[in-house]
Design a protein that fits this description.
The protein has about 290 residues and is of the alpha/beta class. Helix content is about 50%, strand content about 15%. Helix 2 crosses helix 11 (about 260-280), helix 5 runs parallel beside helix 6 (about 105-125) and helix 7 (about 155-165) packs parallel to helix 8 (about 190-200). The chain starts with a helix and ends in a 6-residue tail after the last helix. Bound molecules: glyceraldehyde-3-phosphate and zinc ion. The site of zinc ion (ZN) has 5 residues, from loops.
Amino acid sequence: MTIKNYLKNASNEKWALGHFNFSEIEAIRAIVETAADLKTPIFVGTSEGERKHVGVKEAAALVKAFREEFGIPLWLNADHTKTFEGVKEAVDAGYDAILADFSALPFEENLRLTKQSVEYAKSKNSEIIVEGELGYVRGDSKLQKVIEIKSEDLTKPEEAARFVAETGVDMLAPAVGNIHGIVTESKEKIDAARIADIKKAVGENIYLVLHGGSGLSEADFKSAIEAGISMVHINTEIRIAFTEALKKSLAESPDETTPYKILDPTVVAMEEVIGKKLKIFGSINKI
Ligand code: G3H
Ligand code: ZN
């Protein structure tokens, strides 16, 4: 089955594919092992910073190796790619999906560069999935105190309809009350009615992606998926699991100098977070 087959099933049956970021082998191992255990199709992604650390070609080679070893539907996404050069580099390296994220630019400029990205990507790989982003999803994948979401940040359904029709994207990341990262002194509030309106405006063959999954409740995920979300991105929560486990490991064995012995507990900690999310997303046993 292709990515689009899975997206179609997810959309029709009201579940969501999980997308988790990685920048080192411990995270990708935790993601793939958990997905294989739970028999779930899965996306891994690298942001620009993450792929600078792991390497663009290296990320593609790692995913290929994990796919062969575990035999599960596993795909690599170039998350939040903010330049056309970056889009080209990821497409040429063999990424399965690209998020062409020009959402910081004015609408017409976002539309033009996203369309250019779709044309380039599809000319090189007819199977590739391209996602665009419209609206302003604030925040970074880390702990933050307060983020104030403004009404003008939110994606307008009529703009979304024009954006997907003119760019040719397969998926859209809307701003629907979500933020990147976790806020400790304010609260995220997902606007499920807006998700439903956007889904209706873009049509059943365009799949909606919820970014900024960390910090959201099970009820938030369920209402977002019910309203039309077909993929959820998680990063901060696995970053925190990694960091906390690493600190504990170093504190408990201060004389340990073997890297894999220090790092092994981080895989276990990330697997726990990933498994809980996949169960909420409803993607288990969908292979
Ligand atoms: O693209 C990455 C995600 O949107 C991650 O968001 O760090 O809030 O989980 P998060
Ligand atoms: Zn994101």
